[in-house]
Amino acid sequence: MSDLNVEKSDERPDAGAVDAETPSASAPAARDGERPLAAMGHAASRLDPNAEPVLSVENLKMYFPVKSSGVLRRTVGHVQAVDGISFQVPKGGSLGLVGESGCGKSTTGRLITRLYSPTGGSMKFGHDQVDIAKMSNRQLKPLRRNVQMIFQDPYTSLNPRHTVGSIVGAPLAVHGVVPKDKILPRVQELLEVVGLNPEHYNRYPNEFSGGQRQRIGIARALTLNPKLLVADEPVSALDVSIQAQVINLLQDIQHEFDVAFLFIAHDLAVVRHFCPEVAVMYLGKIVEIADRETIYGSSYHPYTQALLSAVPDVKQAAIGGRRERIMLEGDVPSPINPPSGCRFRTRCPLAQEICAKVEPPLLQIGARHKVACHFPGELGKHPTEPVTTGLLGVDAQGSPSSTGDQPIEPPEAGPGFADRWFDVKSKTMVSA
Ligand SMILES: Nc1ncnc2c1ncn2[C@@H]1O[C@H](COP(=O)(O)OP(=O)(O)O)[C@@H](O)[C@H]1O
Ligand code: SF4
Ligand SMILES: [Mg+2]
């Protein structure tokens, strides 16, 4: 943390006593007797099941070529960083994207902001649901301002030689959306929104602490009034005590600006409060996606359950209960040669023969619940027989079915949720 910070130079007599990260110390709103945005109430964000999607991603893929060494540099393989994922982000809502390091989360974020061009799939954006996946840079220019990114590292994502004013104001200048003389007032307005002193626009990033720098990054992302913010681990580099403040700020901003979030994290605890819906990613695939209550209360995928077992459960501790802890051994395998069948099988405590032979499809198994596992079930209640055999036309070992059964039509694997889904107990399709 920098030893110079905005608060210490504040003229308020109590400024030095305030936590360096506390936004109310510098926000003029507080001086005017109003409550700054970040001090408002913070009930957990709620899901609006009827909200139309601002982003609809279908079968999105990103394969990075692996080149041989030497002069010819032939392509000898591909890093399957993102391999056919589908999801939706509701307008003004927030979807959490969670998984260990190397699962393809940042690549997904970079695809959505079109820092990368996808290998395949579609990304339909906005009210008109235009597909931004295949657009050229020229076609993208008017759309770019609608999707902005907040980066993980507040120390490296801001140019140390530029003042905060020019960092936050740069997108306005580039896009020419406001006259030159209106840039500074807009920058100051944004600094105020994120809880920084607007008079400090001419300071440099190194004069701010980590949490304050992340606020600058957030102000920069808001400059063009985006419809969607991709926040790639926005609090991972911050002290735990500061994380909650920055998440609260993002929540306030969401309400104030009606902006949607794709919130990327490697930890399920971080997104719990902010994201009413969470997608869990493993080695380039989404393995489970559901509303908050389902993910945290009755997840069905062994990987989600393993990630959850690392989250301290305050409620269970209070009643003296203990959560069974599942240790994940080893690292995420290489996405150049991912395991056959289910990609999680090399680390899954439940893996059976079928898991190596047949990839489990991402099946909708509830109103807002999808899971990709042959043995889906709550912790300790996983079925002993695979539930997917009838759907896939295979036997319990994953070989083509000898009974002559034709596979039944698997439920639609599109980005959203359908009114009909596969009931894992009866192994039939049921309706809402
Ligand atoms: N530009 C790139 N070229 C080649 N491989 C990449 C590139 N970016 C990411 N990868 C690889 O893709 C996989 C997913 O990376 P990433 O999306 O950064 O994961 P996460 O954000 O979940 O940690 C990793 O194996 C990583 O090494
Ligand atoms: S399909 Fe098999 S290996 Fe994959 S998560 Fe389910 S039980 Fe584990
Ligand atoms: Mg990442």
Automatic annotation (TrEMBL):
Q: Which UniProt keywords apply?
A: ATP-binding, Nucleotide-binding, Transport
CDD domains on file: ABC_NikE_OppD_transporters
Residue ranges of the ABC transporter domain? Answer: 66-308
Q: Can you tell me which family this protein belongs to?
A: Belongs to the ABC transporter superfamily.
> Could you state a single Gene Ontology molecular function term?
ATP binding
Basic and acidic residues bias (residue ranges): 1-14
- Region: Disordered; residue ranges are 1-40, 384-420
State the protein's name: Peptide/nickel transport system ATP-binding protein/oligopeptide transport system ATP-binding protein
- Provide the species name: Nocardioides panaciterrulae
Q: What highest taxon heads this organism's lineage?
A: Bacteria
Known SMART domains for this protein?
AAA (SM00382)
One Gene Ontology term of the biological-process aspect is: peptide transport
